[in-house]
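Work through this:
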Amino acid sequence: MVLLSVALALSGSLALFPGPSTTTTSVVVGAEVYNTFDGEGFPACNAVSHVYRPSTVDEMVELVKNASSQGIPVRASGNAHMWYDTMCSDDPETIIIKTDAVNRISDLQLNDGVGSVMIEAGATFPQVAQWLHERGAALGYTLVNWNITIAGAIAMGAHRSSLREDSQVSSAALAMDIINGQGELVHIEKDDSDTWLAATTSLGLLGVIARVKFAVLADYKVFSNQTTLSEDEVLDGDIFGMISPYVTANFWWWPGLKKFHLRTYGVVDIDSPGNAFQSTFSVTPFEGNTALTLLNSGQNLSAPNFISEGVFFGLWSAPNFHDKLTDFPLLTWPVTGFSYDVLIGGLYPNQLPEWDYDLHGKTLELAVPVTQGSALLKRVRELIDLAAADGKPVTSTYRSGINIKFGKPFDSFLGQTTERTTDGADWSQGALMFDFPSFVPTTGDHHRYNEEWCFPVRPHWTKNTRKVFQESLKNLDQDSLTRFAQVRKEFDPNGIFSSVVGEIIGVMN
């Protein structure tokens, strides 16, 4: 039986609550719904009273202090890289502190190729990467999508994909300044204490991560390569052996075609030629409008979804890279460039992300031990075959297929790759994360054809519905939850940083 574990890593008014009079904090009054990065119709919080956009750490401190004195719930948000309405509590008095303008980067220390940098709450990965590149430094392999803040990634246990290197963003944190529930700035250093084990996947329940001291390296270049494998080569193969030799690697699964892409990355000499720049999300107007029409046609029929998968498979077989200097597409594998440009990249010039063309998705990410990875994928194949036998075949409708990622073990209470679990499974080789995006049609009931077959399971903390969290409780390690709750109460005794997730998993008591 496949173990589907949470893998524990898993209305005020402006008159009553004014923004600080001595600051430049901007205020959006009566925001009501606070949306995810997908925009209108995709709420991260169903009801909030105000959104504040401070520009300094001191302003954030004052906002929390004022809210605390009035018992007003608070949530911090960078770019709202969420998928479901679990970011806040359901209290309509809640205020949002939007951190994106608090984005200073400073104090780079680099000796013998390793060092650290200070990063404020709202700084995104590309902002930090560009700043470091200009100074001969780079982030390591603990990376996530380009539109996410580093502090937010730490709070939510975000990760890249690697079994060889630390992949969870929190693993590169060396120290943090957290604004607690009284509006006090608390400094903590990396150690083996319960405080650090809670802070490295805090879900924002300890407070606002105001600053992070983050590990960095001397700048470096990497290659990216991709090969196509048959489904049997992966399902019956040595998954750990295929992934672990590389600094980062993952699979893209195309179940309708019964094929996988294996994407691998490794370090090359800094003088190696190449200026590759990756984009997973860039879309031209023609591509966006064409994809929307095709994907919407698959809302009530399976055939268009198989056509979509075939088209996307062909497009994804070629490098999703341009030359950064010329913006010309790179047509053959492997590609080479500076670390962040190849590992993550961003948007191509004069192109927009897919969600700006109404190409939105639901998603799911569940973690299992690598030792059970083959069993999980075979079980998913069985479910796909059963759906087909019932006359309702299922395939992938995401432009890069189903993303199969991996995580080296990392010690924290709520992280996806923690070994702190009583489920009896062997997590010592790390975790396999099954990440299945699904297109959301813009017409009808907004449900894709036969998508529900795979959704009553567990994603990570930003990729999960309330129902799935509730169903996952039996898989959560109670000792980790109890110890996390004790730290949370020390930081926030009145629970002003509460969220739906925190309430469901029982750590707000």
In short: The chain has two domains: 105-219, 221-465. Confidence is low (pLDDT under 50) at residues 1-23, 453-459. The CA atoms of residues 467 and 488 lie 24 Å apart.
